[in-house]
Amino acid sequence: MKMIAAVGRNYEIGIGNELPWRCPTDLKLFKQLTKNATVVMGRKTMESLKRPLPERHNLVLTRSRGYIPNGFYPAG
């Protein structure tokens, strides 16, 4: 299992359901490392996406099992 996380100077990982920065190099690396793999995300991250991440198995950590759009799967 691999874990990828980007953390800001104040230990933030997101602000207002968005990344607190834009770094094309980081996004390209994330895409390379997660292609054809499983990506585990929280419900708010899922909601911030327009669609499931392509070429990945999208697992969502949530207590609301009834609220999982097509292409996403509940974890656990």
Structural write-up:
The protein has 76 residues and is of the alpha/beta class. It has a domain at 36-74. Helix content is 22%, strand content 17%. It contains two helices and three strands, in the order αβαββ. It has helices at 24-34, 43-48; strands spanning 38-42, 57-61, 72-74. It has a three-stranded parallel sheet. Strand 1, helix 2 and strand 2 form a beta-alpha-beta unit. It starts with 23 loop residues before the first helix and ends with a strand.
Topology (elements, then pairings):
Layout: H1 24-34, E1 38-42, H2 43-48, E2 57-61, E3 72-74
Parallel strand pairs: 1-2, 2-3
In short:
It contains two helices and three strands; from the N terminus they run H-E-H-E-E. It is of the alpha/beta class and 76 residues long.
Task: Fill in the keyword field for this structure.
three-stranded parallel sheet; 76 residues; globular; alpha/beta
Helix- and strand-based class? alpha/beta
| Largest beta-sheet characterization | 3 strands, parallel
Element pattern in H and E: HEHEE
Low-confidence stretches: none
Distance between the termini: 16 Å
Q: Mean of the pLDDT scores?
A: 89
Shape assignment: globular
Give the percentage of residues in beta strands: 15-25%
Radius of gyration: 13 Å
Q: State the helix count.
A: 2
Question: What is the helix fraction of residues, given as a range?
Answer: 10-25%
- Please count the beta strands (DSSP E, at least 2 residues each): 3
| Strand arrangement across the biggest beta sheet | 1-2-3
Keywords: NADP, One-carbon metabolism, Oxidoreductase
Protein name: dihydrofolate reductase
GO molecular function: dihydrofolate reductase activity; NADP binding
Enzyme class: oxidoreductase
